[in-house]
Amino acid sequence: MAEHVMATVDTPGGDTGSKQLVYRDEALEIERVCIDTIARTVPTPFYCYSSDAIRTAYLTLSAALKPVGASVCFAVKANANLSVLGLLADLGSGMDIVSGGELERALVAGVPGSKIIFSGVGKKRSEIARALEVGIHQINVESEAELDAVIDVAGALGVRAPVALRVNPDVDAGTHAKISTGKKEDKFGIAVQDIPALYTKAFAAPELDPVGLAVHIGSQILDLSPYRAAYSRIADLVRLLRSQGLPIRRLDLGGGIGIRYDHGTSADVGEYAMIVRETVRNLDCELTVEPGRWLVGPAGVLVTEVLYVKKTADRLTVIVDAGMNDLMRPAIYGAVHPVLPLKQDRQGNSHTYQIAGPVCESSDIFGTYRDLPPLRSGDRLAFGCAGAYGASMASTYNGRDLAAEVLVDGDRFRVIRRRQTTEALLALEDETEWQVSSHSPTDLRHAC
Ligand code: LLP
User: Is there a single domain that holds both residue 70 and residue 177?
Assistant: First the structure.
């Protein structure tokens, strides 16, 4: 089921493997828009997403989950752009958020509080209050201290807070250590053995409406068997709590379904649905999943321009105008995103290049790519599978503007976030009178 394919590293200029990313007359198009045409009006680097790819992924996933009755809450952290959220909301998606900022984004995108789940390991009281004010569907609580904070805030507001307890099932998701969340040594969730006492406490608190349990074991999970282990543990826990007279009506099964960054098919959501069916379906609970990457990852590219080709003794390095501040994944997780030249090489010549960004850090390297056409300054490239955790993780490090984001739909495109300018950033920094006087050059000289 559900082929979810993206460009390959080994065949740049060849078959991109993606329905929405195709070469026509040797030029790379996303849906029916030539990416070079966009780059003539939008300065690189910029992100570009296919509406069709997002829609298709959402519809594929929700169709796979329909027989098991699970609904989808998109993990906003993967791509928080309002237009992307709006597109998913129009399809019926709820949202999974982890901060007050993401909450406001989801609300502005038109998602009602009743379709928003508040996850995250450290929620501020002000964020909890705002979530309760907008009628949040559920707050996933990650510790007893946080439960106490929700009791306080709900009490002060005179409302009952719908809470789920996030369980740490102590299951290894088999993914990168930095995106594993379900082992006992990870900071997330509440240990299985502590859940009964805490759920009993929640049940006894008039300020709380304990609705059930939540679990999220990690991200970029390609071998789905850890889900079976985690969900089986949750099912046992539900039976135990119910045997103690504690009602459980909802299960939030988390996100994490992986995609292939190299080639081949992504995790099979039909197989995932089968695991849900075999582990938790018969518990008679409302089920929700919180995918991020699977829905939007393959739908996006980061478009960049070659600044220089630098020859050293042992290699050719292509310095591009996108850096680790724009796409952090290679630097943080050693991720390799596929590279597609915007123009194919007629002769089919191929070269091996290291591709590096301009940021002053040795880790600002995208990888070494074989089979690229000869590259020159001014040529443009697209990094594939950049729709998730790309723009949403970008920073302004090295004084670099946040890249623009563009959405394509059929033969149309529009800028859905303008490039953030240096002027806009500078406007946040107000040099007040006392700073000017106490840090005058004279003072500094005395200090030294
Ligand atoms: N639910 C919770 C509670 C989460 O913490 C996450 C992701 C998700 C859902 C969505 O997971 P997904 O379906 O996207 O795998 N920056 C990393 C990924 C961090 C994921 C954090 N939590 C990366 O670029 O690979």
Answer: yes
